[in-house]
Design goal:
CATH superfamily of the largest domain in chain B: von Willebrand factor, type A domain
Distance between the termini of chain A: 55 Å
Structural class of chain A: alpha/beta
Number of strands of chain A: 9
Structural class of chain B: alpha/beta
Largest interface: A-B, 47 and 43 residues
Largest sheet of chain A: 5 strands, parallel
Shape of chain A: elongated
CATH class of the largest domain in chain A: Alpha Beta
Helix content of chain A: 40-55%
Number of domains of chain B: 3
Helix content of chain B: 40-55%
Order of helices and strands of chain A: HHEHEHEHHEHEHEEEHEHHHHH
Strand order of the largest sheet of chain A: 2-5-8-1-9
CATH class of the largest domain in chain B: Alpha Beta
Largest sheet of chain B: 6 strands, mixed
Number of domains of chain A: 3
Number of strands of chain B: 9
Radius of gyration of chain A: 24 Å
Oligomer: heterodimer
Strand content of chain A: 5-15%
Strand order of the largest sheet of chain B: 6-5-4-7-8-9
Chain lengths: 310, 379
C-alpha cells in the first residue's frame, strides 16, 4: 500500500501514478474518459481538490463519481441538490423523537436531578442523524469516500456559500457538539447542468471540467463497453444515428445516457440491424419531446446515413 | 529581478502565463496560478498535453473560457509569437463592441441637452409624467422616471418554497417543540408548528431592442435595471438579431454604469428582429433547463418579426408550458384602436396570459402588479 505517500490529502487508487494509468483503471470500471477528463480526475485525486463537472444532461457527469467509487473501492455518498435544500437535509439533524423518549425514560427512572449533565446528555452523538455531508466527513477507512454533490445549480445561493466552507475546510461545526473534521477529505465531485451560473468563489476551489458530447468513434466504444450485448455493427449504427440527431436542432439533443438506453432497448428486441421500423418503434427511448419526435419521424432514414457515407 | 535567487523556471513561466491570461480576460488569480503549478508538478512538465490540461482544469471555469485559454496557450507555450504584444487585442477586444454600435438614444441626450424644453419639463408634475408616452420623453424626464422606477416592486407571484418556517398552524415542529419542552422539564406544554414559506417566483424579462422598438427600448431597459438591481430573483435578456443575457451587466446599482455595460454587451441595437429565433434560443439555452420553469416570463416587444411566424408561435407555446405565467408588453397597444395585426403578435397571443401596454410609467406599474399576480390585461 502506498497510501501513506499520498499524505492527508489525495486518494489515488493503489498502483496508479500518472493519468494514463488512471484512464486504464476507469476503463476497467466501464468508463471511457478522454485525455482531458482523465487528467482532471487524476489531478482532483492527487491534489485532493473537488472536481467541478459541467455539461449537457446525460453526458456522464454523475457517472464519473460512480466509477470513482468503484475504482477506489469506497462508498459513494450522494447529495442530490434541490431548491430550498438546507442544513437539516444536507448535513445533520437532531433526532427529536429519540431525545423526547430519552427525557421520558430519564424522568421515569428519576435521573433528571443533575439538570446540566442531563441536558448535555441530550446533545450527544447518539441523538444526531447524519445526512450525506456529515456522513462523508465521518467516514473511516483506508480510502476516503466519494462525495457526489449532484446538480448543485438547483440549490440556492445560500447553500452554495455553505458548501464553500465545507469544501475548503472539510470540517463542520455543530454548535452543540463541536467541530467534526474529516480524517481524510472525501473525493468530492460536483455536477451542474448550467441552469444558472454557479458562483465563482465556489468554482475557484474546484478543478473545472466541461464534458462535451463524445465523437463518433468514442461513442461506439462507449456503447460497446456498456452494452456488451450489442454487436459492433449495431453499436456503430446507433452511435451514428445519435450523432445525426444531435445535429438536428432538437429541443433536447440526446446524451450518452440516451444512446445507451436506446441500444439496450434495441438489444432487448433482438435487433441486429437498425432500420426505419425499428427506429419508429424505439424512438421514445432516445427522443423525449413530442415536437422532437415529430421532427425526427419524417427523417428516420436519414438518421442511418453516416457523415462519410451515402 | 534577474540578480535575485532564481525561482524555479516553471513558477516563473506560470506567473507570466497567468498575467497573459488575465489580460486576455480570464480571471486567473494568483490562487489559481499556484494551483496550476501544483497540478503541473503532479504531471509531466515536458509533455505539452499535460501542461495544457493542467491549466485547462485549474485556470478555466466556464465553457467559453476554453477558447481564450487555447489561444493564449498556443501563443505563450508553443511560442507562435511574442505573447505580450499579440494577446491583449485578441483576447479582450474580440469581446468588446465597436464604438458606433452603442445605444443610439445617447445621441439624442446630447442634442437635447441645450434645449429649453429641458428646463420647462423639470417642473412637470409627476402625474403627467406618469402618463406620458416614453417616446415623447426628454432625458431629464427619463432621469425623473428612473427614480420612480427604482420604487417599483418587481417581485413575482408567490409560490410554496421547500423550506419550512414557524407558523401558527401546519405540521408539527419537533425541534422547537422539544426546545420549549426542555424549559418545562421535558413536558411539551405547547406544540409548535411549521409550514412551507412563500417565496417570490423568478421573473424573466425579455426585451426586444429592434429598430421599431427604439423609442421605448431605453425606458424599458431602465425598467429592467430597476428589476435586476432590486435584489429580487429577476433575469434580464435582450432580444435583437440574437439573444444577449444582460442580468450581470444590469446588476450594478448605479443606473448609468449598468446601462452602459448592458449596451456594450449588446451588439445589435436597433437592428432587425428574428423574434421567433431569439426566443427559441432563450428556451433552448436557458428556459427549458430551468430558468423559465415556474417563472413569470415577460416579453417586452411590439411583435414585429421578420423571421418565420410559425417559429414564434411554437416557441411561445413552449414557454407557456414551462412558465407559471406569460406576460406580453406591447407599447403599441396604447394607440387608440390598436389591433394585434403584426403577424408575430397575432401568433404569440394565444399563448399569452396577460397582455398589457407598457408605453408609459403608469402601464409599467400595471406590469409590476401583473408580475406579482394581482392584475389582469388592461383592456
Amino acid at each position: 500500500m502506498n497510501d501513506a505517500a499520498n499524505g492527508r490529502r489525495g486518494a489515488l487508487p493503489p498502483g496508479v501514478s500518472h493519468s494514463q494509468e488512471l484512464s486504464g483503471r476507469l476503463r476497467e470500471g466501464d468508463y471511457l474518459a478522454d485525455e482531458g477528463l482523465s487528467t482532471a480526475i487524476f489531478l482532483a485525486l492527487k491534489l485532493g481538490r473537488p472536481l467541478f463537472l459541467e455539461g449537457e444532461a446525460g453526458v456522464g457527469k454523475t457517472e464519473v463519481a460512480k466509477v470513482l467509487s468503484r475504482v477506489l473501492d469506497t462508498p459513494l455518498i450522494r447529495l442530490q441538490c434541490y431548491e430550498g435544500i438546507d442544513v437539516n437535509q444536507a448535513v445533520y439533524e437532531w433526532d427529536y423523537a429519540r431525545q423526547l423518549l430519552h427525557i421520558r425514560t430519564a424522568e421515569a427512572l428519576g435521573m433528571t436531578e443533575d439538570r446540566a449533565r442531563f441536558e448535555d446528555e441530550l446533545y450527544t452523538r447518539q441523538f444526531l442523524v447524519s445526512r450525506p455531508l456529515l456522513r462523508a466527513l465521518e467516514h473511516h477507512g483506508s480510502m476516503p469516500p466519494v462525495l457526489l454533490i449532484d446538480e448543485i445549480d438547483r440549490a440556492d445561493d445560500e447553500f452554495e456559500a455553505f458548501l464553500l466552507e465545507i469544501l475548503s475546510e472539510f470540517a463542520i461545526t455543530i454548535p452543540e457538539l463541536g467541530t467534526i473534521r474529516a480524517d481524510r477529505p472525501p473525493v468530492a465531485v460536483l455536477t451542474s447542468n448550467r441552469t444558472r451560473e454557479v458562483h465563482d468563489a465556489l468554482k475557484r476551489r474546484c478543478l473545472y471540467f466541461y464534458i462535451d458530447h463524445p465523437g463518433l468513434e468514442r461513442e461506439v466504444e462507449i456503447v460497446r463497453l456498456r452494452v456488451p450485448g450489442a454487436e459492433e455493427h449495431l453499436a456503430r449504427q446507433v452511435a451514428q444515428a445519435v450523432q445525426n440527431l444531435r445535429n438536428m436542432d432538437l429541443y433536447k439533443p440526446p446524451g450518452i445516457a440516451e444512446t445507451l438506453d436506446w441500444t439496450e432497448a434495441l438489444v432487448a428486441l433482438g435487433a441486429k440491424e437498425l432500420d426505419e421500423d425499428l427506429i419508429s418503434a424505439t424512438l421514445g427511448s432516445v427522443v423525449k419531446y413530442r415536437e422532437d419526435q415529430q421532427r425526427t419521424m419524417g427523417r428516420a432514414l436519414s438518421l442511418l446515413t453516416g457523415a462519410g457515407g451515402a | 529581478m534577474p540578480e535575485t535567487a532564481a525561482p524555479p523556471p516553471m513558477l516563473d513561466a506560470a506567473v507570466t502565463f497567468g498575467r497573459v491570461l488575465r489580460r486576455a480576460g480570464l480571471p486567473a488569480g494568483p490562487d489559481r496560478v499556484v494551483e496550476f503549478v501544483r497540478a503541473v508538478d503532479e504531471l509531466d512538465v515536458t509533455r505539452r498535453e499535460d501542461v495544457y490540461w493542467a491549466g485547462r482544469v485549474t485556470l478555466c471555469s466556464r465553457p467559453q473560457d476554453a477558447e481564450v485559454y487555447d489561444r493564449a496557450f498556443r501563443l505563450f507555450w508553443d511560442g507562435d509569437e511574442p505573447p505580450r504584444k499579440i494577446l491583449p487585442p485578441k483576447g479582450r477586444l474580440s469581446v468588446t463592441v465597436a464604438e458606433d454600435s452603442v445605444q443610439p438614444p445617447k445621441k439624442t441626450v446630447e442634442k437635447n441637452e441645450r434645449g429649453e424644453e429641458a428646463v420647462r419639463l423639470r417642473y412637470s408634475p409627476v402625474d403627467i409624467l406618469r402618463k406620458k408616452d416614453f417616446a415623447d420623453c426628454t432625458p431629464e424626464e427619463f432621469a425623473e422616471l428612473h427614480r420612480l422606477m427604482a420604487d417599483l416592486n418587481l417581485s413575482g407571484a408567490l409560490r410554496k418554497g421547500r423550506r419550512l418556517g414557524p407558523a401558527p398552524r401546519g405540521s408539527r415542529d419537533a425541534r422547537r417543540t422539544l426546545r420549549d419542552a426542555l424549559r418545562t422539564c421535558g413536558e411539551p406544554m405547547r406544540h409548535r408548528y411549521r409550514k412551507a414559506r412563500d417565496l417570490p417566483r423568478r421573473v424573466v424579462l425579455l426585451c426586444d431592442v429592434s429598430g421599431s422598438m427604439a423609442p421605448y427600448s431605453r425606458a424599458l431597459l431602465r425598467f429592467m435595471h430597476a428589476g435586476v438591481a432590486s435584489g429580487e430573483p429577476v433575469e434580464a435578456f435582450v432580444l435583437g438579431t440574437r439573444l444577449t443575457r444582460v442580468t450581470r451587466e444590469l446588476s450594478s446599482r448605479d443606473p448609468d454604469r449598468a446601462l452602459g455595460e448592458a449596451s456594450r454587451a449588446v451588439e445589435d441595437w436597433s437592428g432587425g428582429t428574428r423574434l421567433g429565433d431569439t426566443i427559441k434560443e432563450f428556451v433552448d439555452r436557458w428556459g427549458q433547463r430551468g430558468m423559465a420553469r415556474g417563472a413569470v416570463v415577460v416579453v417586452l416587444s411590439d411583435g414585429w418579426d421578420r423571421g418565420d411566424v410559425a417559429v414564434l408561435a411554437e416557441q411561445m407555446a413552449r414557454i407557456h408550458r414551462l412558465a407559471h405565467k406569460v406576460i406580453w408588453v406591447n407599447p403599441l397597444k396604447a394607440a387608440p384602436g390598436y389591433q394585434p395585426l403584426a403577424r408575430g403578435m397575432a401568433a404569440a397571443l394565444p399563448n399569452v396570459d396577460v397582455f398589457i401596454s407598457g408605453h408609459n410609467f403608469e402601464s409599467l406599474e400595471a406590469l409590476a402588479r401583473a408580475i406579482s399576480g394581482v392584475a389582469k390585461s388592461d383592456r
